[in-house]
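[step 3/7] inverse_fold.run input=structure_tokens len=157
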């Protein structure tokens, strides 16, 4: 069974949630400037973009048969992503989000069902199938950050 259709549906739903989050931001929230350790709403979306692009690149590498080690210092990667996007405009960040989503989808399609399902196919996956990494990094991770942001804004419901 190919999990790809369900995974694509989850990725699309996550994209919808990201867009809904951005759409409900006030002008003050859009104008707020964040810091590497105190993200603004734009920094949050940029963070999601950074990881989305990293996952898209990872899928492209795996499709080519390249199984490169992944960064282990997540805090350093997050700081790098922040520095990459901190001076960019909202329009640039949103464009990157759209581009990243398309690259992710294209690169997901380039993998075979075996690439996605075989937990032992890629050593750097450490016994986890690729589809789980995609779901965790590109669905659970963004939704967790968005939910946290809603709670901080007093919108727990």
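[step 3/7] decode complete -> sequence:
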């Amino acid at each position: 069974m190919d999990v790809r259709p369900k995974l694509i549906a989850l990725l699309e739903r996550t994209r919808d949630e990201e867009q809904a989050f951005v759409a409900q931001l006030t002008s003050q929230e859009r104008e707020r400037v964040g810091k590497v350790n105190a993200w603004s709403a734009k920094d949050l979306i940029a963070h999601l973009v950074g990881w989305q692009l990293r996952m898209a690149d990872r899928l492209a590498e795996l499709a080519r048969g390249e199984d490169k080690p992944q960064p282990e210092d997540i805090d350093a990667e997050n700081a790098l992503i922040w520095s990459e996007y901190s001076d960019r405009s909202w329009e640039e960040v949103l464009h990157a989000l759209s581009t990243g989503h398309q690259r992710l989808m294209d690169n997901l399609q380039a993998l075979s069902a075996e690439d996605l399902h075989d937990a032992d196919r890629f050593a750097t996956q450490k016994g986890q199938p690729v589809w789980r990494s995609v779901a965790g990094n590109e669905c659970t991770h963004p939704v967790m950050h968005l939910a946290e942001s809603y709670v901080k804004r007093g919108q727990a419901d």
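[step 4/7] annotate
Residues 41-63 form the longest helix (23 residues).
The chain has a mean pLDDT of 95.
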